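Example (one chain per record):
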Amino acid sequence: MLTFFFGTMTMIPPPIAMAAFAAATISRAGPWETGWASMRLGWVAYIAPFAFIAAPALLLDGSPAEIAEALIIAEGTAKNHVSNILGKLDARDRAQAVARGQELGLL
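Predicted structure:
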């Protein structure tokens, strides 16, 4: 999965940077400058998968205390966030929320 993810991310940085080069052509800007600017803005996309592997609680996977610790928030705040998500998806638990999210095309 990470191979696929990083393969799709080749659209951002030079030397491949197809998306950045296309944007440069449309905006009549320098392709290399646009490619490097897109890399500076898109670096988070490369770091995010590793953050999720290192701390699965960032994906709301864990107890409210674990989620709160990963997000550096109070446990009550984590419980409120999870409750709000479940309520908006009309789900009883996280498994049902995932199923509902897939039904709605959110995942």
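Caption: The radius of gyration is 19 Å.
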